[in-house]
Amino acid sequence: MDEETRQDELPRGVALSWGIVKEPQRGPKREMNVKQIVDAAIAIADAEGLTAVSMNRVASSLGFTAMSLYRYIPSKEDLLLLMQDAVCELGIEERIDEGMPWREGLRIYVEAMIQLYQDRPWFSDIPITGAPITPNNLKVVDSALRIMRGLPLTDAEKMSVILLLSSYARACGILQRDFNRALKAGMTSASFSGAPFLGALSELVTAERFPDLRPLLVSGAYTGTDEAADEILDDFDFGLARILDGIEHYMAGKT
Known about the structure:
The protein is mainly α. Helices cover 59% and strands 0% of the residues. It folds into two domains: 3-86, Arc Repressor Mutant, subunit A (Orthogonal Bundle); 92-187 and 225-252, Tetracycline Repressor, domain 2. The chain contains 13 helices and no strands. Helix 3 (34-48) packs across helix 6. The longest helix has 30 residues, at 155-184. It holds the Pfam family TetR_C_1.
């Protein structure tokens, strides 16, 4: 299959991400390129959020008109796709090796995904429209598959593991993102957990109406203020460990 055929089969934004679309030659000179446009859009999103990104705003930041941008990137949807792929250069493959235990490798994978949501709070605001088919997104998938190389799992099972861990990372990443935003807006970590409202809630959350929640609320476990607890669980670590335990148990049942 030649380059032109591949380009015709792929959505325009995807083809651009793979670099198989020739950039426009019209005009007195090559004023811009796709990477410059995407980088400018990412800079705006980093500073002001995804809602601030528009073709007009990006063009203006580069000193051009929106019509100039459309010669390179046909639509805002294509721009968002390219932004999403550009920030997925996570370097996971550089942090894993053949001899690494699979649990450690998958932890690195999940932590890298969560860090993406911290570094790019706007990332999760881009809707998921299908399976990843852009190069950097696929590199992330390839890294996860490399970690699972040799595990007694079918190809379909490996993809299910990736979906499971990616979904967990997305949930944790969005929660941490919202927590960070709340702190930036002036909220304290105690307020975010609900601790300042424990007294009032203890009266409102009655045993009759909330028979199983009330004991946790009174003990402080619900708001993370249980001083009598032997240990305070890290919710992320606890959840990820249980997921990895489940995968390990599943594989043990296959042998």
